[in-house]
Amino acid sequence: MEGIWKKKDLLSLYDLSPEEITYILDTAEEFKKVSQRKVKKVPALRGKTVVNLFVEPSTRTRMSFELAEQRLSADIINISAETSSLKKGETLLDTAKNIEALQVDLIVIRHSAAGAPNFLAKRLKAGILNAGDGSHSHPTQALLDIFTIREKKGKIKGLNVSIVGDILHSRVARSNIWGLLKLGANVTIAGPSTLVPREFTQIGVRVCDNLRDALEGADVINLLRIQHERQQASYFPSISEYTNIFGLNKESMRYVKPDALIMHPGPINRGVELDSSIADGPQSVILEQVTNGLAIRMAALFLVAGCLKGRDTSQ
Fold first, then answer.
1. Which residues of the chain have pLDDT under 70?
2. pLDDT tens, position by position, 170-201
3. CA-to-CA distance for 190 and 197, rounded, in angstroms?
4. Long-range contacts of residues 203-208, Cβ cutoff 8 Å, at least 24 apart
5. CA angle 58, 224, 265 (to 5 degrees)
6. CB–CB of 223/248 below 8 Å?
């Protein structure tokens, strides 16, 4: 599989082949070993400059990317919308072109507009890594989820993975669906009918309106955050009713296999999508997802940096 990665950008799992996804996972395995060493740094991106352009707020993803860049010995610049010329009315493209003019190598972008990373990738020579764009895609979150599943279960193909919650607005759900299907998993999505698009059945996804049906037989249950701001749009009657019907608690855990993994991309609304006892319980791999996110982002940065056209990529 040597040399299989030939993309200068990481925008979406929809764009990747099963072999490319597997290559990132395998590369992340090697980088995870770095974080387990006494000296947690390698010179893989020494001499490279990475800009973290976070136009949308983030804590976990931004911290994970920044730490990954530090572990790879890159030079790092952090830019947020509140402290940039975007606040003064400058366009995203002008901001990005000014950044590129400083001879930066990689731009990690998070944006509320779907397609923003793709827009920049077509117009810049710098490598673009999508750290989340609108409700469209969040490739590194899906990769860390898939990495965690493979690490715990030893495989992806043939596993039954249920994703429960607000599928409609979730870039995490979309990215997981694309990646899991490509690697041969059986995917089920569940939640209130207003938040579970039926068109996913066209690509082989099973759709459930009933939590029990989604839980029974599942090897992995990935619970999505219910966003309180969505209540303004009345996608379901109330948070308490959502919790009663789709929350994972002691009662609904009766339908969960004893070896099933419980996952959540964070931040968790404890007592809403799942009880604290389950989030902190023996089947939960939520904190392991965070740990694995660092390895995945190190792998993504390393692979993208190695494919920059017209640049010296020697380490």
1. 1-2, 83, 227-234, 309-315
2. 999 999 999 999 999 999 999 999 999 999 99
3. 10
4. 203/177, 205/177, 205/181, 208/162
5. 45
6. yes
